[in-house]
Design goal:
- By secondary structure, this protein is mainly α.
- It contains 4 helices and no strands.
- It has helices spanning 12-36, 45-49, 53-59, 84-95.
Length: 103
């Protein structure tokens, strides 16, 4: 009979730090795989629309997971801060890496 090893519990701070490190490593692995030519698509809607998925990802038309970004989702006028459209615009900018929010 095999005995199971019991791991010591880590503190909440150590756990959060460990999770951030793992998430960063996973994200880096995705980009490394993309540079090698391996895709990890979750959504295949872009395959029908674009001839080359890799080129569309490089140009910023599709996310690395295959989701298509909208072309022109907002009118070219300024919005007051706090409005629904302003908040949607900020979220879209963060998704497309135009104005990335540092967390």
């Amino acid at each position: 009979m095999e005995e199971k090893k019991q791991q010591t519990l880590m503190s909440e701070e150590e756990f959060k730090k460990h999770i951030k490190e793992v998430a960063k490593a996973n994200k880096q692995q995705l980009y490394d795989d993309f540079s090698k030519g391996i895709l990890h698509l979750r959504d295949y809607s872009g395959v029908k629309k674009f001839k080359s998925i890799r080129r569309a990802i490089r140009r910023g038309h599709i996310s690395i997971f295959g989701e298509i970004y909208p072309k022109r989702p907002f009118k070219n006028i300024s919005r007051s801060k706090g409005s629904v459209t302003y908040n949607k615009k900020r979220a879209y900018e963060q998704l497309t890496h135009r104005n990335r929010c540092i967390v």
